[in-house]
Amino acid sequence: MIIARLPYLTHLNRVLINRDERRGAEIDYLQRYAQDYFDHKLDFIHQH
Asked: What pTM was estimated for this model as a whole?
């Protein structure tokens, strides 16, 4: 989840974050939090 939230992060634990890894993390993040976002937009923005 950290990869999806930090778009300028290029390395994590000395490992390069490649495009596919970032895309997968972003998709996982959206799948997990999309419904919460649509249900509670303002509250969601403050929490994430």
From this structure: 0.69
**Domains contained in the chain, number:** 1
Q: Read off the tokens for 41.
A: 């937009």
| Rounded Cα–Cα distance for residues 22 and 6 (Å) | 10
pLDDT tens for 1-48 read 789 999 999 999 999 999 999 999 999 999 998 888 788 777 767 777
User: Containing domain of residue 10, as a range?
Assistant: 2-47
Percent of residues in the chain assigned helix, strand, coil, to nearest 5: 65, 10, 25
How far is it, in rounded angstroms, from Cα 29 to Cα 25? 6
